[in-house]
């Protein structure tokens, strides 16, 4: 079972999204790019569950706007494999807005060119700080959050495996298919409630 500290619950995700969207709107109004770039990163990370290395290598040409799909190069058994992921309508709309007509190059670009892993981590940390969430939440937390909530919604282990690019369903099961922390917490709450109203013997 994945540790509770390694994924965000629905409340935390909404808190993060609200914080970065307000930042996006404020910076967009002032003509700044940091807010829009931060919201793009958070949205892509939470919507796809991509690894940091996969986020760094995303190119505009990897996005299929018509099919609402994303091509991702993944390393499997020491071989590079191109996989196609389905992405939500909301992300497609956001990507169109963010790219504003740009048709090539890397998705995440800084003043000196394509951003590296460290650059994305810094942007993510700024978003977490702005949302008032625990500072130890990394971009990988978004990956675990996506996997956890996708399985919770679909109950489809195979879908989660394909989305995250795990080599086998067993690996996915080891992470997400066990009893969740939420279920554990729900189970212990009110465990003896019935006995509280029972008359003393």
The CATH architecture assignment turns out to be Orthogonal Bundle
Number of separate structural domains: 1
Biggest pleated sheet: 3 strands, antiparallel
What's the total count of β strands? Answer: 5
User: From the structure provided, what is the oligomeric state, counting identical versus distinct chains?
Assistant: single chain
Helix-and-strand structural type: mainly alpha
Helix % is 55-70%
The CATH topology annotation reads as hpI Integrase, Chain A
| SS element count, helices | 10
The percentage of residues in β strands lies in 5-15%
Uncertain residue ranges = none
Question: Ends: how far apart?
Answer: 40 Å
Mean pLDDT: 88
Gyration radius, in Å: 19 Å
The top level CATH class name = Mainly Alpha
Q: Write the CATH homologous superfamily.
A: Intergrase catalytic core
Going across the biggest sheet, name each strand in turn: 1-2-3
What series of H and E elements makes up the topology?
Answer: HHHEEEHEEHHHHHH
What form results from the Cα inertia axes?
globular
